[in-house]
Amino acid sequence: MNKKFTAKLGAAMAAAAIGLAGLPAAPALADGFEVGDSATVSLTKENYGHNLQMSSRGTYTPQLFEVKSGDANSLAYCIEVRVQQPLSDAEIVPWDEFPGDNKFATDGTVREKVAWISLNSYPTVDVKDLSAISGIPGLTEKDAITATQVAIWTLTDGTKFFPLTNADEAT
Q1: Which of 102, 118, 130, 135 gets the highest tally of CB atoms within 10 A of its CB?
Q2: Which uninterrupted H or E stretch holds 115?
Q3: What is the mean pLDDT of each run of 10 residues along the chain (171 residues)?
């Protein structure tokens, strides 16, 4: 396990993690979060998506993290598919200190796109509004979480996902 990753929460778990804005060098944080703050990261029980097959690497189920710092609380997507964020204490750091080794760590355009995704998708945008904006009737939270996580991992890691055999239509 990457020890650097256990100590820092790139302002990324980043873009989606704490509602960051689209400037790669100086992201804005959600209310109550500040760079340098200590944070606690845990999995939520309710906020998960559909099962996905990632080439030969196995099945993944996208799941939002809960990030807490003082009275601040936010939901976060994972931005590095090959590294699992330990559920522990972390530090909120600027994007240029993100401890990962994928495109989010090295490409400002990828960071901007991930920020845009996080600001224009669930849970930042209510699932009913997202359904109307996207033109997808009956969109569910599971659908939105899955689509958002896949979009982020596609940008940050170039990951390709495949529908599961005998899966439901949404996958």
Answers
A1: 118
A2: helix 108-119
A3: 40 41 45 82 86 79 88 87 71 80 91 90 95 95 94 91 59 43
